[in-house]
Amino acid sequence: MKKLLLSMILTFGLISFAFAQSKVISGKVTSGTSGPIPGVSVFVKGSPANITQSDATGYYKLTVPNEAKTLVFSFIGYTTIELPINGTTVNANLKEENTTLSDVVVVGYGTQNKRDVSGSVASVKSKDLENLPVTSFEQALQGKAAGVQISAQNGKLGQGITVRVRGAASVTAGSEPLYIVDGIPITSGNFSSTSSPTSALADLNTNDIESIEVLKDASASAIYGARASNGVVLITTKQGKSGKTLIQFNALGGISTPSNHREFLNAEQYVQLMRRAGQGAANQDFLNGDYTTLQEALDDYSTIVENRLNRYSAGNNDYQTYKVNTNWERESYQDNPVTQQYDLNLTGGTEKTKFYIGGQVLDQNGIIVGNSYKRYSGRLNLTNKATDFLEVGVNLNFSNSINNRLSNDNAFSSPLQSVALSPITPFIDPRSGLISGTLPGAATNYPVYYNPFIGIENAAYKATVYRTIGKAFANVNIAKGLKFSTDFSIDNLNQNEESYYGSLTFRNTGTSNGDGQNISTFVINANTNNFFSYNTTAGKSTFDAILGTSYQKSTTKSSNIEGQDFPSDAYVKLGSAATKVIALSSESAFSFLSYFFRANYKYNNRYLVGLSVRADGSSRFGANHRYGYFPAGSVAWIASEEDFLKSSETISLLKLRASYGLTGNAEIGNYSARGLFAGTGAYGGIAGQIPSQIANPDLTWEKTKQLDLGFDFGLLKNRITGTFDFYQKNTTDLLLDVRIPQTTGFGIKTQNLGALKNNGFELGINTENFVGAFKWSTAITGAINNNKITNLGGQILNSNEINAAVEGQPIGVFYLPEYAGVNPANGDALYYLNTVDPNTGNINRGTTTNINEAARIFAGNPNPKYTFGLNNTFSYQNFDLTVFFQGVSGNKIFNAGGQYMSANGSNGYDNQTVDQMQYWNKPGDITSVPEPRLGYGNGVGNSTRYLSDGNYVRLKTLTLGYTFPASVLTKIKLSKLRLYATAQNLATITGYKGWDPEVNADHQSTNINQGVDFYSAPQPRVISFGINIGL
Amino acid sequence: MKKTYKYTLLFASALLSVATSCRKALEISPVNTIEQGKALLSSKDVEAALVGSYSALGSRNLYGGRPFLMADFLANTDAIEWYGTYAELTQTINKSLLKTNTFVNNIWADSYSAINDANNVLAAIDKVDATKKNKVEGEAKFIRGSVYFDLVRLFGKAYNDGSPSTNPGVPIVLSPTTNITDGSYVSRANVAAVYAQAIADLTDAEAKLPATNGFFATKFAAAGMLARLYLQMGNYAAAGAAANRVITSGNYNLTSTFISAFPKMPEPGNSGQPADNTKEDVFAIQVRTLTGFNGYNEFYASPTYGGRGDAVISKDWIDLTYSNDDDRINAFYDDGDMFTSKFGNQYGNVPIIRLAEMYLIRAECNVRLAPAAPIGGQTPLQDLAVIRSRAGLTTTTATLIDILTERKLELAFEGFALHDAKRTQTNIGSIPWNANQLVFPIPQIEIDANKNIVQNPGY
């Protein structure tokens, strides 16, 4: 009816003009700071269809009915104003919206005006997170919160993502932040049964998120006590709004391609290098005295190499003419994998009842063959004012995800490991017409390794997750300013991982008749928060406080069965397996009982004092130390409120902040404090028990004392706003797995031992560069973090022989022999001795060919010292453009696959990266690639040879959008229509020569083992197109 | 007023519900595992801990096979061709072990964990029912004594190399660890002391163990281990006597064919199946589909038979070593390369002591001692003939060289090569029998964790 009315008005618009039953209003729209504003929507109140826009000079003209009384002026970034129609001229002076100042930020157990926050909180709003083709919200957060370093391990879908707030604060205990969604600590972390992690956070729909706050300093985070040392991430989901129900539909579709390729030898180069490697090895054998003449050695090796080349060429001599030239790297990628994402959201309600309903279907195909991720999710956030003093509500989130996963980076069955296969090997074996290496045939020695593409058709690994997070809550207004809040929540995660490896994957599994596995994981995480909050204002004093308690218990149960010997590959369920090889179930639980208090006092709108304390008890800790207390305090001064600055034209805000406090880290095993026996000592079919863990009844939390000094500023009427922080985090009593003499029967004991420091600076700047018709705003985040281990009790933790944790160095420091290049005389790989003379302290810079004689050096930091993001947003008329760069600097990357793929043909028949063609060939050659010597491992040991710079700048997101103007929308009866194109990872500038500088091989990732590449897939470049429709 | 009453009721019930749930809020007991204080309370508990000790003994890093396999690799000259990618074994076959070698560390760690398991049993022995007490104690001591013997001959200098009473052996720990104290930071005892400990344990075990005990250790398993140990020390009288006790027990017989002394290989395309010990097994580690691990199979078997196919047996070596009429030449199979058939069953038990070894020990001791009446009343020629006739060979002489050669033919790849070379002072290729590189390094991480441990020379 309304719409009919509107069209009638439109239809009669001209007529009414002709009959002069209307009048023409004109005027100019300006702003105090920026003069005339073009593009302002001007319409008659109550008739939004009767609309025009100001022109380039701010001038507008609108024909209105005679009875029209009020005009509305509306423009993004300005406060909407209404002006009465008096006469025919109405000039408008718009005021800029001071969103940065009036913003509300979410803090633990409540919200605060941004202006009143005295701690360090990074806040990212939905507009910076929405409508990106990402699996998990952390990817959208990357580079947008200063001091929050986010890095993906590789380009596989649904994989774990490393998040560090102000550096790693632990060596062997968990370093991931605590995640709180709408007030409840949700189940996060990794539940993958393989060593390559997944993330339980991927069950959340990024488009449901209203804001993400990262609590960084002690005063903000200490309200989460024993689990706050690694930072706290508060996620707030979208809430209903009273008014007309807004229905929004978003669709996005895109194509992914690898963001980079790595080039390997072609057939001709491969044959040349392998033959040369045979000659190199022959020469060495001859020099060793294994042959009497060089020619004999050369002849022997020639026979060996040609036989192998013949074998890898599918048993023919095609390799001699380079007839087959397979590019295995390219074969590892899917053709045009499609990503699709559909969202339907309804927001609405009345004054009494408000709701948000969100639903999403996400269907992503990964760049690597066989990799895909699907998620169906829904959310209902509902609140109801039951009485004038009681508000109740529920938040309900459910999702189902299906991840078709790939093998770990270090598995032969990982598709990208196919780059080790020979370019002379045909993809399809002409002898069988099947994928090379498929049985029947010489499956054990052709091709060089197990061909991972056999697994694409004959194996599957599917992880299915059902997740429900439900919360019921009530807020009771007891008296003026006094409120009681209570909630109860259950976060339930059900995961099933199912895999089947068919009989044709025999070379990989070693099992002739199929291998199936089924692993179920069930996590039930219950939480309740109950707290009072109070606020009052008296004269110039404002006071608020909370006091409450929370209890959380989380239980994880899992079962794992594996069977082998299936009648045929048509049977994939374990009931058909003749042999059961694994059958186990397990259960583990932890609980936290906590009491918390916080008070904030503000005087005269300019002096702020905050104080908080939390008492945390945990089942995880030793009987002697079950409770801990975590106090923090902060002060702030809003100097710009003082008389001497109040009138300043330049400075609109200046706030100085300081905070100090104590937080903890409790991320260790649930029973690490106890001396345990396990029933895993069965032998010969008879049950047995064995001691499994040494006791430590004194075990307690890791303690972090953090100082934060910062200031917030606003210049030129807040067209430039910013925040700056310096912090110092000192972590002591590290929860450390300390090596003990193995003669005790145990290897490690979890102890509170050691210390480390993180200090650094963070900067966030937002500027409005142009505010006229052409708008340009910039957001910069930057952070510097210095991490140093100060005490590990003299231990060197160095499990992968690449990264180390050692006193005086940052965590994960590369600890490697130093490569000295190639001896021009004979092609030997050389290493610096770097041994220290015990008497003089001099370092011996002599060289050796024996890598074991070379002392290891601290060769670089895998964790970036500098992280930054630069977001530029432009808009003109109906177009908007976002250009977001993100980058890191000061870190190094180690290619652990180098010893196989960049081994100058000296380590077997693996195909080599193209740079290996610069090998040393004859005396006098100057090169850094040693002489190829088949099987001699010339220069292939882990050394700085495979270490390179890891800094990068990446065009992370580029989005161009067009929003249809109101004039069009009314015709098509929509409230919003936007078309956009967005590109992820479009361009990267990096010093790293591998696939992708954003890497850490998934199978080996720990706090210490960082910055290691091992056949890891690059990030996808996703180019997608989307549409937002509002009804 | 009415409102206030309602609130009070609401909060009271809310707080009450929290308070009641809090009482035991932090008491969460592990369920996959149990607290050590609840583990060893009854006879059944201690017997279960004994079974646990066997499972530790059967670890792939212990009697599952790796220490024997690595010893053979160190002694290898031309029998084994290594195609594997494990750097730990590449170092071993190249006789250039690094002190960071994780296989070496795993052997050290798992040995002491088996010792700690046995120590737990022995410390709680009074809880065991009187009828079983001797048996349980004997088994625990068999495990502990055997492990000390293997530790000292891998990580210490050979008994016959210099002075065993000053050469460092390995630390001796005889009580269970329940807490880390200053006493946990032990030093290495000398080689002779470790041998003495192993002898004491094994002797006590032999005295207390029953003659039959299923697949668990028996009186004769302990005697067999003692025979091996005394032979290593060069105490031929004791070795011969111990071997004789095993042979004359009558509990064991040589299998009719050589290959049937080992777990049966499956038909190609099928996976192996667990089976009972053969009648020749004096002691064997039990492998089932879900427990135990055949550490020989892992490297010596071709992929068709569940292994990695990394350790190939040289065709030339086979042809040079075995005569064509020796049935043992058939204990190899061709699967692209040559592999030994001894370990062709992934789920086959791991033979630790076979009766054949006892005949060879008794024969050797009788040759060396040349007593008026041979130990056991059987001449070396008779004993040697027992072994050779099964292989289809006739026996005309039984010199020391004949017997040592026969050990190579009969016991190849079963972990004897290095220790035989050391006790007979036979160089390995050009490497002297007592070279530093033929002794395992003490793991670097053990030295890092315990300053009281000294490294072996050469590392």
Question: Can you lay out the helices and strands and say which pair or pack?
Answer:
The complex is a heterodimer of chains A (1031) and B (459).
Chain A: H1 2-18, E1 22-31, E2 35-36, E3 41-44, E4 47-53, E5 59-65, E6 70-74, E7 81-84, E8 92-94, H2 99-102, E9 104-107, E10 110-113, E11 121-125, H3 137-141, E12 148-152, E13 161-165, E14 178-181, E15 184-185, E16 209-215, H4 218-221, E17 232-237, E18 243-258, H5 267-287, H6 294-312, H7 328-331, E19 338-349, E20 353-365, E21 372-385, E22 390-404, E23 428-429, E24 434-435, H8 452-458, E25 459-479, E26 482-501, H9 506-509, E27 515-538, E28 541-564, E29 579-603, E30 607-618, E31 627-638, H10 643-646, E32 651-665, E33 676-678, E34 690-693, E35 702-715, E36 720-732, E37 735-739, E38 748-752, E39 755-771, E40 774-791, E41 803-804, E42 813-817, E43 819-822, E44 829-832, E45 835-836, E46 843-844, E47 847-848, E48 856-860, E49 866-876, E50 879-889, E51 892-895, H11 898-901, E52 947-949, E53 952-963, H12 966-972, E54 976-990, E55 1012-1013, E56 1020-1030
Parallel strand pairs in A: 1-8, 14-17, 51-55
Antiparallel strand pairs in A: 1-2, 1-5, 3-4, 3-6, 6-7, 9-10, 11-16, 12-13, 14-15, 16-17, 18-19, 18-56, 19-20, 20-21, 21-22, 22-25, 23-24, 25-26, 26-27, 27-28, 28-29, 29-30, 30-31, 31-32, 32-35, 33-34, 35-36, 36-39, 37-38, 39-40, 40-49, 41-42, 42-48, 43-44, 44-47, 45-46, 49-50, 50-53, 51-52, 53-54, ...
Helix pairs in contact in A: 5-6
Chain B: H1 2-22, E1 33-35, H2 43-57, H3 66-74, E2 80-82, H4 87-93, H5 102-123, H6 130-155, H7 191-208, H8 219-233, H9 236-248, E3 281-285, H10 295-300, E4 311-313, H11 315-321, E5 332-335, E6 337-340, E7 350-354, H12 355-369, H13 380-390, H14 400-411, H15 417-423, H16 444-449
Antiparallel strand pairs in B: 2-4, 3-7, 5-6
Helix pairs in contact in B: 2-5, 2-6, 5-6, 6-7, 6-8, 7-8, 8-9, 9-12, 12-13, 12-14
Organism (chain A): Pedobacter psychrotolerans
Domain TonB-dependent receptor plug (chain A): 114-232
Pfam families (chain A): CarbopepD_reg_2, Plug
